Queue: 2 jobs
Job 1
Amino acid sequence: MYSTDMQKDRYLTPFIVEDLREKMVFVGGPRQVGKTTLCRNFVATHFSNHAYFNWDNRTDRKAITASSWPGDTELLILDEIHKYRKWKGLVKGEYDKLKETYKFLVTGSARLDLYRRGGDSLQGRYHYYRLHPFTLAEVERIAYVSSLQKELPIGKGSHQSALDTLDAFGGFPEPFLKQNTRLLRRWHNEKTERMFREDIQDIEAIRDIGNMKLLSDILPSKVGSLLSVNAMREDLEVSFRAVSHWMDILETFYYHFRIYPFTAKKIRSLKKEPKLYLWDWSEVEDEAARFENLIASHLLKYVHFLVDYEGHKAELYYLRDVDKREVDFLVTIGGRPWFAVEVKLNDATLSPHIPYFKERLSIPFVYQVVKKSGVDKIEKGARIVSAGKFLSALV
């Protein structure tokens, strides 16, 4: 059983503290991923005094709109302020006027990199981080090692217990730490209901919220497969435009993410169809799809960290050609392949698609990741390795 102390020092803590010394920091991420806990706990350690304001609190709203800040505070934390229509202008004005007096930390359960667009530009005034759920390297307290465009620093430990717990309960702090299946089910229901009732409707005017909820109910069954908006439109008996709009909104609020095929003439690749995954993989009932989602989430967290902190142009794709050869994931740096990952539950026999894509695209490193422990071998230039070992090399 993991301790609640894990929440006090999340993987982003030292990097946010470092960046606050020169600019504002924005932290986005899904509801209940631990943004407020992260901010208020690391503040207590690294700053002499701080003030916390939450837009959902009436008293705090009045203070924010009146720019009423404590005089003895070193850091201002503005939580969920993106729900205020004029938040960009307010934050820009306060920062420009008071940046020599205060550090500014802004958090939100929607994608702040989208809501910053338009109006007064905040560009150049902040660093943006996306806070992810717990992953294996984080719960095992494995320090991040930069290995850009080199082979991943895969360790010797199996980490099977951590992997099994993450697979069963997901990486969101509350259900992961409690490890109770009944509480997990209740947590799923409450999280989704609050996302629709409080978060989405505070930002977007949705006329058919009932069908949008139905859409969120069917998405877990679509994990890992090519996503057809038209098929979901037919299921829900609504327009293509409505489903597409709802999908964009749910992605903005960190319910799901989509990855797209890597396009290259050498492999006659698919052009458009994305694959879908959930930020909370514990909602996925099918074991194989849930495990693929777990790996996808770990890779996305790693890619986001490379972008948000390291500043690299990193992307996560999948590989599939018109002849239906497929490899689940490809990580690129600056548009060039770095490593590919194929996911299997128990099959340690090398997929023939891995060496095919490795040769055609000159992919430096390729991995076949299996759920069962005790696997680690090299075959045809590919490393077939247990998931616990592989995931220890990420963030």
Job 2
Amino acid sequence: MATNMQTNTTVNQGVAASQPTSLLADPNWKLHAGWGVGTLGASFLLNSFAALQAAYLTTVLGIAAASAAGLLFIAKLWDVVSNPLMGWISDRTETRWGRRRPYLLLGGAVAGVAMVIFFSSALTPVSQSSVLIVLSLALVGTGYTIFNVPYMAMPSEMIDDYHERTRMMSWRVAFIGIGTLIGASAQRVAELLGDGAVGYARMGVVYGLLIFIFMGWTFFGTAKGRARTRDIRKVSFGEQLRTAVSNKPFMALLGVKFVQLFGLFTSTAMSFFLVKFVLGKEQPGSWMVLFLLASTVAQMMTIPFWRHLSQRIEKQKTFALAVIVFSLTSLTWLVASPEESVWFFCFRAALKGFAAAGLILMAQSMLPDVIEYDYRRTGMRREGVFSGWYSFVEKVASAFAPSLLLLGYAWFGFQSKAPVQTQEALDGIRYCAAFLPCLYFGLSLIPLAFYRLTAKTLESMPRPA
């Protein structure tokens, strides 16, 4: 106990001298990497769906944009129940492998199978069935919930130190960059594997297998991590939720994350439409990969910058700076056209990746901080409840952001399966790309202003015996 407190004090007095200079210099890097690798599977799933679910429903299945938006909305209603419930279940689980780890394997299996089912639907006789589309989308969400809720609860169990959690999350951000590159490249993979529905089906099989492999890998990579036993006190699900809501830093962070994810998933979902229709590229997959490559390189290279900045000016201010950079970069889509040079296209992508590194790292490292704050405040271990709500807003945004984007496209007259769009529809795609992320990220600054949790605040709170 005394050692931990002394370490935290030293870190805050001399951050530059005490922090490892690289991720591999950290003595706990194997555990950090073993946990972070699961992000690859989650990113493959989340980003491939964010990039292609709207495009697949409209341009492959031929569903009208407004109808597709409605199907995505209905499918996500299940998450209102499943995410908080999964957190509660994992908090109350007892196995020889701990509370969380068994769900990593189960979630990977369900998510991988769901990926195959959804992207194979166009080859079935009932491809236009709204009920089956909603069920397949709900199955995807269920697999992600089973994996991600326990997964995101694990860092606060394994790590106590405020800044070490940031270093651990640096691995996650790095894997998010790689996973985003591969996951959102699903369009190009589908193009290479076949024409139309056949290519998408084959891509679904490949990605489904990768999702299972990397989600399951985390089960083995965290075998030596500390796992806490379940809290023996009998506290009802409703009472746990009410106490969680009283955690002001958590509620501020949840508000920030909710609206920001709308901006991030809008940016991902719009990429296909921007490249194919606004930039006029016949095979959008190649240009989408180019954008993702430039973005990922910038994201991974700038992780140390954002980590060191957060140690100097605290996480809240660092978060706000990343918000501003991302918002201003989004406005450059107003000048997008078929004449745009590849260099400017990649420069925009690099700026997006630079800002995304700060956004993701701060959000991910703040979650275990607010869970630790709850533990010191109440003496209760219920990481799953908090990670369940965190995962819930992530999944709601991943579905609703494309839904709102599709409604915007429908307003401007976008026509599903039409090879050429009207000028009004093209302008609508451009306006949505520029202004929607700015709106969402601008709104996130409001709850961010109420986030006051710092390293000093946590240090001043005694740990329960």
